[in-house]
Amino acid sequence: MKNRRVTFTALLVCLSVLLVFSLAGRVSAAQCENPDVLTFSIIPTEETIQELTLYQPVIKYLEKTTGKKVEFYMPTSYASVVEALLGKWVDVAVLGPYSYVIAHSKDPDIVVFSTYAKRPGHIQEEGPGYKSVLITKKGTGFTTIESLKGSVLALTDPGSTSGNLIPRVVFTKKIGMPLEKYFKKIVYTGEHDLSTMAVYEGKVDCAFVATHRFDNVIDRGMVKQEDFNYLWWSPTVPQDPFVYRMSLCPDLRKKIEDTFLTIHTVPKAKKWLDNVKSGKMVPMTDADYDIIRELKKAKEEMKKK
Predict the structure, then answer these.
(1) Do 243 and 92 touch, CB atoms closer than 8 A?
(2) Of 32-36, 46-50, 76-80, minimum mean pLDDT range
(3) Which of 6, 76, 237, 275 has a CA positioned 20 to 30 A from the CA of residue 147?
């Protein structure tokens, strides 16, 4: 009899636990977001402004796999995409590695799920990473890092990894002082292609640009690889993260992930993959961007000195 009471009590405990988990699951499902319309955005690049139509097959495929209407948000800066994610009026976005770390620190609800696997290019290496490179124009006399002291430098955007964060944290260790003390003047161009063209046209003396963005300018026939000197290369950092908000319902997030991880199977999306010089998309985790966090922390510590 005693054993029966024990068994009955254990059964009640198990049922109670199952009930609690069941209710928790319903509450979680009820609280997650399942919007009728998804909003997609990317940080400003030459692809955004000049070749936006290339994204149409991607957006159409995203609509097909999720069953949602997808709208595109045209940003004005890196920060505007981050603010749109924080404000919950953008659901899926492409950020820069540095802007992703900033966005995730402000709201852990914003999480990376994928990035490009780049094909080898003119100066871009194969894989899900890239480098920051310091360029000057041939024939200008700026052939060494030492020759650049007192010159005019172009950076990209305060939220850029390769066009601002890496130069300020990694390159400054090379020259032993802040950029503002080494260069006569520093300007922000807003985009990597504009930095490249500013060097080519003699508007600035040098610039830090991302290897894959620089390749795009060559492919457009605007410059040639041999037009430039390459004076410094950074360590490899992860490619631009594709992110979503974790508050979206789990099955919707899974559909979004599957969309991008299978985009290489969509014939109409090949032109888009060709444009970003990638063969496919690969999964990424938040931990893959810890190297960017280390750079960010180093930059903040340098500011305190």
Answers:
(1) yes
(2) 46-50
(3) 237
Whether the per-residue pLDDT at 113 is higher than 80: the answer is yes
Return d(Cα 11, Cα 77) in angstroms, integer: 58
pLDDT at residue 8 in the model: 47
Q: Which residue has the tokens 């992860």?
A: 238
H or E stretch covering 50 = helix 46-50
Amino acid 187: pLDDT: 97
Backbone angle region of 233, left / alpha / beta, with phi > 0 → left and psi within -120 to 50 → alpha: beta
Of the two residues 212 and 38, the one the predictor is more confident about is 38
What are φ and ψ of residue 193, in 5° steps? Answer: -65, -35
The total number of residues shown for the chain amounts to: 305
- Any residues with CB less than 8 A from the CB of 71 and at least 6 apart, and which? 37, 38, 39, 40
State which amino acid sits at residue 26: R
Q: For tokens 């010089």, name the residue.
A: 277
CA distance 22 to 182: 62
What gap in Å lies between CA 145 and CA 211, rounded to an integer?
Answer: 18
